[in-house]
Amino acid sequence: MSRILNASKLFMAILVSLALTGSIQAAGTSPLETRPDAMYTSGNLIEDAQTILEQNDYLAPGSFRKGELDRTTIAAITEFQRTHVLGQTGALDYDTMAFLWSHAKAPQVAVASTVVEKTNYVYLPADTPAIVYKPTSEPLFIEKKALILSGVEFDNDKATLRPESKTTLDQVTASLKNWPDVNVEIQGHTSEPGTPAHNMFLSQRRAEAVRAYFVSEGIDGGRLTANGYGETRFIANNSTAAGQQENRRVELHEIF
Description:
The chain is of the alpha/beta class. The protein is 40% helix and 10% strand.
């Protein structure tokens, strides 16, 4: 039995070391402490932990402050620790983060709880290139192709829209208002650095941030769905800095 427990701890140590190191390096901070007595307080890691806790029904959507160890989050962490026979500290210690990452679930793609019921998804063929969307008064999908939103930028390793994104997003909003029968999937895409799991969560949050902007400007949320694809759909050479920048993008796809 002791051999099994030791093997389990070794596996968790490897998992948390790989996953968390990628997350911290993506945020541009100092090297991550991976000692068994390490404690994690990075806002990015707290947000990742909250995402996993929400996925596993320890946190209710909208009940916590993202990236903060508020009371609701601490209570959820404590319950997670109790369920998995960990020290009930309410803190993100080494063992807790390892177990959390082992419970991470990739967001389901193309399943839209927020889209109008009975909508059928029809995606463009993989070999049909997307086009770069720039502010225009024409309908969004006049060329029947997916759109890459030029000028939509986020803070580094966050889902916070930068002010310069407003020009493009406002024009998309105007188009959505002028053509109310158009339903849209908002796709978030990311690239290295960072672990695949971290970037999957980041891409989902970024897609949701764009959706939230449209809703705040008066667009019916039932016409919009947000999906994150992480590092699964590159459009440029991801081994170069320029290619990685191009791969970090938001796309719009029409849903029929």
